[in-house]
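Obj: model holo form, ligand = D-mannonic acid.
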Amino acid sequence: MKTVYNSMLNDFVQLPDYDRSVLKSRIVHLGFGAFHRAHQALITNEMLNRTGCDWGICEINLFGGEDLIQSLRAQDHLYTVAEKGADSTTLKVIGSVTESMHPSLDGIHAVLEKMAEPQVAIVSMTITEKGYCADPATGTLDKNNPLVVADLANPTEPKSALGYIVQALLLRRERGLSPFTVMSCDNVQENGHVAKAAILEFAQLLDPELAAWIETHVTFPCTMVDRIVPAATEETLAEISELLGCEDPCAIACEPFRQWVIEDNFVAGRPNWNMAGAQFVADVVPYEEMKLRMLNGSHSFLAYLGYLGGYAHISDTMTDEAYRSAAFNMMMQAQAPSLTMPEGTDLEGYATLLIDRFTNPSLKHKTWQIAMDGSQKIPQRMGGSLQFHLSEGTSFSWLATAIAGWMRYVSGVDEQGNEIDVRDPMAETLRAICDQHGQSPSVVPALLNIEAIFPAELGENPYVVDAVSTAYQSLIDHGARATVAAL
Ligand code: NAI
Ligand code: CS2
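Output (holo C-alpha cells):
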C-alpha cells in the first residue's frame, strides 16, 4: 500500500493530513483486532489531522494475528477503514500507527523493552473479555487461569496481557522511569477497575512491593467504547479493495456511528482525543452500564435467539418484526429501568438509535460472532439488571429468554440438529453439562449453578430458575422464532 499511497488510491479516499515522521510510539496498544483499528486508532488519526502532535501507536498482538502484523509492516503501517452507512461508504486511510510487534515475530523481550521505553505514556488494550483472566461473576483475578498460573511461575517470559504489563512496569520501576497509564477499551463492566484489580492481585502474588508501587503510581481509567465493527470477511476486503483502488489485507469495515467516553485520569499525559469527538468525564460508569446493558445486552439476546431462529446477521433479525420489537423491549423494559443516568439522558432516544444501527443492512455482523464467549459476556450484560428486577419484584422475561437462548445455544446443536461451532473459554464444561441433561429444563439450574458465571444469589434464586426454565422449555417445544414472537 505504501507504493500506491501517493499515486493510485481513488480520489475520494481520505488520507492522513499530518507529518507522520514526527510521531512517536507514546501509546502501546495490546490487541490490534478489528475494533481498535476502527476506533482508537481512527480517532487518534482524526485528532492528529486536527492538532498535529506526536502521539503515535505501537500495535502489539499477543495472541494470533501475526499475519496481520506482517501485512501492516509491508504497507508502512497504513491501512483503511470503511465506514458503511445504509446508503454510502466513506474510506479513510489511517496514519496514526508508527510500528508493530508480535512476540512470535520479535520475541517476548523485545515487546517488554518496547513497553519499557521512556516515551511510552499509555498502554491501552482491546484483548477481549477473557484477556483479563478475571472471574466473570466477581471481576477478580482467576488464579487458576492457565495463563496466570504460567506467568506467575515464569514472570520474565509472560504470556498474558497482565503478565506483560506487570513485567514492563517492573522494568520501568527498576530503571527509575515514570509509569504509564493502563487504559482498557474492552466491553467489560468498569473495565478500568477490573484491569486494576486483576493487575494488582497478580503483582501482589509476585512481589507485594511492586504491587504497592503500581497501586500508588499507575492509573486505570475506565472507558466506554462503542462502534459496531464486525470481523473482516473476504467479501468486505474485496469490496474495500475495489473502492480503494488497491488491496489492503488490514482494511476493516464498520458502521458510521462511534462513541468514546473516557475517565480523565492519566498519569503521564494523554492525547486530546476530544478534538476528534471523544468525551473526557469524571465518571464513566453510568455510560458503560447504559451501553453494556442496552446495546450489548440486546445484542446477546439477538445473537442467541437470532442464531437459533436461523438469522445469520443482526440486520437479518431486524427484518423480523417480532425480533425488532423484542429487542426494543429488552432495552426499554428489561435494561433501561435498572440504570441510574445523569439528568437529561434520553434512554428512549438511545434505544431508537440502537435499533437503527442494528438495522444497517451494509454491516454483515454475524449472530455467531456476537454469540462467542457468552460465559464472559452474560454476567455483565444481564447480571446487574436481573438483580435489579429481583429486588423490585418486576418482570424480567426478556432477560430470562436471552439466558435460556444462551443455554440452548451452548448445547452445541441447533434447531435442525446441526452442530453449532460454540467458541467460549468454558465451551467444554458447558457442553458436558448440557450433554448430561439432554434437552431437559433440568439443565437450567445446573448451568445457573456455575459460580464463575452466576453469583449464588442469582443462580439459586427460585424466580430466576423458574423464569429461565419456562423460556428454555418454550425454546425446546416451539423454537426461537415462536418464543420471541410470544414475548
Ligand atoms: P478481534 O477478534 O478482531 O481481536 C481480538 C484481539 O484480542 C486480538 O488482537 C487478539 O490478539 C487479542 N486477544 C485475544 N485473546 C487475548 C488474550 N487472552 N490476551 C490478550 N489478547 C488477546 O476482536 P475485536 O472485534 O477487535 O474485539 C476485541 C474487543 O474489543 C471485544 O472483545 C470487545 O471487548 C471490544 N469491543 C469490540 C467492538 C466490536 O464491535 N468489534 C466494539 C466495542 C468494543
Ligand atoms: C458485540 C459488541 O461482539 C459483541 O459481543 O455485542 O462487540 C458490539 O458490537 C460493540 O460493543 C458495539 O460497540
